Amino acid sequence: MTAYDTMPFHLETERLVLRPWVESDAADFCALLSERGKGTPTVEHIRTSIAELLTATSTTGIALLPIQRRDEGDFIGYCGLIIGRSTVEEPEIAYELFQRAHGRGYATEAAGAVLKAAVATGRKRLWSTVGAWNTPSLRVLEKLGFERDHVSMEDNGEVVWLTRSLP
User: Fold this and answer.
1) d(CA 119, CA 116)
2) Is the alpha carbon torsion for 125, 126, 129, 133 positive or negative?
3) Residue 155: CB partners within 8 Å, gap ≥ 6?
């Protein structure tokens, strides 16, 4: 366990609801991951991944949460805090949305809610890592006050590391 408060696991914005994973999210999560163009994982594999996410949440007190549009009730992606390439003390903010949900401000709105949740835990800094090619994601983070820290080279290309101090 950490010295930080547990992140709220139910977040609401004007248009979105972020909530804990349920087994019935597996098919939508598979469809989202298949948009990456690297094949489609099986629903059973994703159910296992969801169970692992829930276990990690109970251990770390931070969560990656499914995003639903409030009015439509449909799953459009995920957003939350992860350890990723960082630490539980200074986690990464991560998000991914269906392509059909791009360009509508949903990522900024969801990540803004997660940012407030991170502040509530008592953390002082967050990280994010984004492929250098992903200009829209870099814009989202810049809108939220993240600043470029450095760039690293990984197997899949350049990765931009951004950071944001929290109040």
Assistant:
1) 5
2) negative
3) none
Residue reference for tokens 């098919």: 27
Residue 68 · residue 12 · CB < 8 Å: no
Q: Determine the Cα–Cα distance for residues 73 and 155; give it in Å rounded to an integer.
A: 37
- Residues 120-165 have pLDDT tens digits of 999 999 999 999 999 999 999 999 999 999 999 998 899 999 999 9
Rounded Cα distance between 16 and 141, Å, is: 18
Burial classification of residue 63, based on how many CB atoms lie within 10 Å of its CB (0-12 exposed, 13-18 middle, 19 or more buried): buried
Rounded Cα distance between 23 and 71, Å, is 22
d(CA 92, CA 106): 18
**How far is residue 118's CA from residue 163's CA, in Å, rounded to a whole number?**
13
